[in-house]
Amino acid sequence: MQPLDQILLILDIDETLLYAADRPLARKPDCRIGPYAVYLRPFLTDFLNQVSQHFRIAVWSSSSHDYVESVVNTIFPKWVIPEFIWSRERCITRFDPEWHEQYYIKDLKKVRRQGYNLERVLIVDDTPQKVERNYGNAIYVTPWFGDQNDNELQLLTKYLLQLRDKANLRCIEKRNWKNRGY
Ligand SMILES: [Mg+2]
């Protein structure tokens, strides 16, 4: 049997890994990036250290290019080197007629074009709408706005490690992952 490709794990940034606030919360931020007071989600460094040992890591955010680059340079441990760092420019824009506003979609077709097998790709995001074209690859996390008791990234590490040897990740029901396991 062929060994499986290492999974490509694509991470969102805002409200998934951190909270970048216009106005600081009642406590001191962990760092500042541009005009933002940045708070890191609990267990973030542990999470990045652990998953980077078992997965190929990439970053895809619908924020601006400069912001995304600064975030990766600031919060990623030096030895965690993403395969790619994508920002808004790689997203597709759609119009939501109900809310009368634009929104961004991360279409994994663009990832497939880079040569990745989508059966071995996972995308972690707090906004289901942004991955609506590829829900089979998505793991949704609860949006995070600074709660210090949150342990989502700890749970996510455990869950992801269970998926490593699954051949086709798109066939695995991942909704409700926190209760289900796989
Ligand atoms: Mg987000």
How would you characterize the overall build of this protein?
With 182 residues, the protein is of the alpha/beta class. The protein has a single domain (8-180), classed as 3-Layer(aba) Sandwich (Rossmann fold), CATH 3.40.50.1000. The protein has five helices and ten strands, in the order ββββαβαβββαββαα. The two termini are 23 Å apart. 30% of the residues are buried. The mean pLDDT is 95. Bound molecules: magnesium ion. Magnesium ion binds next to loops.
What's this entry about, in short?
The chain is of the alpha/beta class and 182 residues long.
> What is the architecture at the second tier of CATH?
3-Layer(aba) Sandwich
Q: Count up the domains.
A: 1
- Assigned CATH class: Alpha Beta
> What characteristic shape results from the CA principal axes?
globular
| Mean of residue pLDDT values | 95
Radius of gyration: 16 Å
What order do the helices and strands follow? EEEEHEHEEEHEEHH
Strand content: 15-25%
Top keywords for this entry?
5 helices, binds magnesium ion, Rossmann fold, 10 strands, 182 residues, three-stranded antiparallel sheet
SSE topology:
Elements: E1 8-11, E2 18-21, E3 31-33, E4 36-40, H1 44-54, E5 56-60, H2 65-75, E6 85-86, E7 92-96, E8 101-105, H3 109-112, E9 121-125, E10 138-140, H4 152-163, H5 177-180
Parallel strand pairs: 1-5, 1-9, 5-6, 9-10
Antiparallel strand pairs: 2-4, 3-4, 7-8
This protein binds magnesium ion.
The site of magnesium ion has 7 residues, from loops.
Pfam families: NIF
Organism: Gimesia algae
Protein name: NLI interacting factor-like phosphatase
